[in-house]
Design a protein that fits this description.
two-stranded parallel ribbon, 162 residues, 6 helices, Glutaredoxin, 18% strand, globular, alpha/beta
């Protein structure tokens, strides 16, 4: 038993020091953008299908969805914008910096929390996480609550294949 513990400890030490660590850049600032700025930023994304992902640091479902949505953005960069609806920007910043994968910049919705829905011509959010899917023509194709896995599949889909 003593040898087993010593071997396990040695293996852990070798793994810790021998493998390179991947440092994640910390997000230093939250950008408070109004609805028009978020829509403009979304339209400038390079992929044909664009997603606005609304989340909050206190939302349990959002916490489950964030790693899946982050993986989708890493696999197909330029597809998703994540927007915090937290009232407290410091909480949003801390939440983002606790994530293992974080391909998103820190963005919060400035002003009226329902202003983006008004500008996009969609119904107000009913719960979180909330997704707005925008097609290649920059028109809203869907808005609502769906699984993060469904969003990931949609983002990773190759739209050039029939």
């Amino acid at each position: 038993m003593k040898h087993f513990i010593l071997s396990l400890f040695t293996l852990c030490m070798i793994t810790h020091y021998a493998l390179p660590s991947v440092a994640k850049d910390q997000i230093n600032k939250i950008h408070a953008l109004n609805a028009s700025e978020i829509i403009e930023k979304t339209h400038s994304l390079k992929n044909p299908v664009k997603v606005i992902f609304f989340y909050a640091s206190w939302c349990g479902y959002c916490r489950k969805a964030m790693p899946i949505i982050a993986e989708a953005e890493i696999e197909k960069a330029g597809s998703i914008i994540a927007v915090s609806v937290d009232d407290n920007q410091l909480k949003a910043l801390k939440y983002l910096n606790r994530q293992e994968l974080m391909p998103f910049e820190g963005i919060t919705l400035d002003g009226d929390k329902n202003s983006i829905e008004k500008e996009l011509g969609i119904e107000n959010r009913k719960g979180l996480p909330f997704y707005v899917i925008i097609g290649p023509d920059n028109e809203v194709k869907f808005s609502g609550n769906v699984s993060a896995e469904s969003i990931k599949k949609l983002v990773l889909r190759d739209f050039n294949k029939p």
